[in-house]
Amino acid sequence: MDALLLALLGALLGEIGDKSQLLVLALAVRYRRNGAVIAGIVAAATANAVLSAAAGAWIGPMMGADARLLFLALSVLFLGVGLLWPVGAPDLLTGWPTGAFVTTALGLFILGFGDGPQFLILGIATRTGHPVLAGIGGAIGVIVALVPVVLLRDRLLALLPSRAIRIGGGAIMLVTGAVLGLSALALV
Predict the structure, then answer these.
(1) Distance (Å, whole) CA 103 – CA 186
(2) How far apart (Å, rounded) are the C-alpha atoms in residues 153 and 174?
(3) Based on the number of CB atoms within 10 Å of its own CB, is 47 exposed (0-12), middle (13-18) or buried (19 or more)?
(4) What is the DSSP letter of 98?
(5) Where are the domains of the chain?
(6) 3-class DSSP state for residue 181?
(7) CB distance 9 to 141 below 8 Å
(8) Do 139 and 43 touch, CB atoms closer than 8 A?
(9) pLDDT given for residue 8 in this prediction
(10) Residue 157: is its pLDDT beyond 80?
(11) DSSP alpha helices (H): ranges in the chain?
């Protein structure tokens, strides 16, 4: 259960105020097809989570306990740095000749590939040995962060103190990652 909850909360935090939310807002406004955009979000989040969890299940058994903990520490640090990094405007995919579902699914899959939440899912799956729970939690976290943007549009982004959440979350992730890393290296 730890894998599910940690991945859910980490992925949710990692998506707040990120490019993914801005892209989803632009696609929801452009297409005005909430169901198709939400289905695209679910498809992209699931695909990225499955890839991360499968990779974690594959490499986890090849590593010792300390190496797995260090890998998790690095993924948490990566998420923390990503939260503190300035968020630029995403490509709005205006030239894509596809519909709402395909544009959302492919756009978010590409944008999320190599993003902080994906690495966190990978790190949790590697460390805990529960890749299915890590994947489910991470996918749910991303979905929970993005679907309200479709339903509430820019009202949600106006109400949410995204900058404060990102700075606070980034600081927490950096401290947590540092503690995990020091523990993995037997320095604490």
Answers:
(1) 46
(2) 30
(3) middle
(4) S
(5) 2-184
(6) helix
(7) yes
(8) no
(9) 95
(10) no
(11) 2-15, 19-31, 34-59, 65-84, 100-112, 116-128, 131-152, 154-159, 162-184
Q: What is the rounded CA–CA span in Å between residue 30 and residue 157?
A: 17
Enter the tokens of residue 109.
């899959």
Give dist(CA 141, CA 188) in Å, integer.
31
Please report where in the chains the tokens 């974690």 appear, as a residue: 56
Q: Nearest Cα to 93, choosing from 83, 85, 101, 81? A: 101
pTM summary value: 0.91
Q: What integer best gives the mean pLDDT of the chain?
A: 91
Q: Tell me which amino acid residue 42 is.
A: V
Residue 90, C-beta contacts closer than 8 angstroms, at least 6 positions apart: 19, 20, 22, 23, 26, 111
The predicted-structure confidence for 35-72, as pLDDT tens digits, reads as follows 999 999 999 999 999 999 999 999 999 999 999 999 99
Q: What is the CA radius of gyration of the chain?
A: 16
